[in-house]
Design goal:
Low-confidence stretches: none
Number of strands: 5
Strand content: 5-15%
CATH superfamily: Phosphoglycerate mutase-like
Structural class: alpha/beta
CATH architecture: 3-Layer(aba) Sandwich
Strand order of the largest sheet: 2-1-3
Order of helices and strands: HHEHEHEHHEE
Largest sheet: 3 strands, parallel
Mean pLDDT: 96
Distance between the termini: 15 Å
Number of helices: 6
CATH topology: Rossmann fold
Length: 187
């Protein structure tokens, strides 16, 4: 699940490792997702979030169950671009489906490094004992890069809309994830 809307989301600011609080919309949307889970009797064996407040706060609004915060689930580090207007983002390369290494010279992460981290951490989580139905709250760019590891870019562009508080459903078998669908409870 992607975290709820933050002040930086609403203001069009680049938000990776920097953090900003959830807006009233972000709080209300997270509560609506929690109600959706209750109404549909969806329960989780375990829950995890990024160490960033916007993700852990979202998770706490969705469920009261205990959870673990993991650094490996954090968002992409955008270096000196953090907190700046999104218009300053490097140019997206449609051939590779990201900006690649564009943030590296500015103190940020490469897309490949974030993708590898996310695949490793999520695979490790799913291989833990008793982890069958898991809720993980994270961030848009890192979730996108994780997703890009498992399905072709053209399918992501056509079929995956990942707004704040979107829930992406996967199956996991033989150390591979299969994307099933995105659940958008909120507008």
């Amino acid at each position: 699940m992607r975290h709820g809307q933050t002040q930086f989301n609403a203001l069009g600011k680049i938000q990776g490792v920097c953090d900003s609080p959830l807006t009233s919309k972000g709080i209300a949307d997270a509560k609506r997702v929690g109600q959706y889970f209750k109404d549909n009797q969806i329960e989780f064996d375990h829950a995890y979030s990024s160490t960033q407040e916007r993700a852990s706060n979202t998770l706490e609004l969705v469920t009261n169950q205990p959870y673990q915060r993991l650094k490996g689930l954090k968002e992409w580090n955008f270096g000196v671009f953090e907190g700046e207007n999104q218009r300053l983002n490097p140019k997206y390369d449609s051939k590779i489906g990201s900006v690649g290494d564009a943030f590296v010279p500015y103190g940020g992460d490469s897309a490949d490094a974030v993708q590898a981290r996310m695949v490793r951490v999520l695979t490790d989580i799913m291989n833990r004992k008793d982890n069958q139905k898991i809720l993980i709250v994270g961030h848009g760019a890192s979730i996108y890069l994780f997703l890009k590891n498992w399905i072709p870019l053209k399918e992501i562009v056509k079929h995956v809309e990942m707004k704040n508080c979107s829930v992406l459903k996967f199956e996991f078998e033989n150390n591979e994830f299969k994307y099933l669908k995105t659940i958008n409870v909120v507008n």
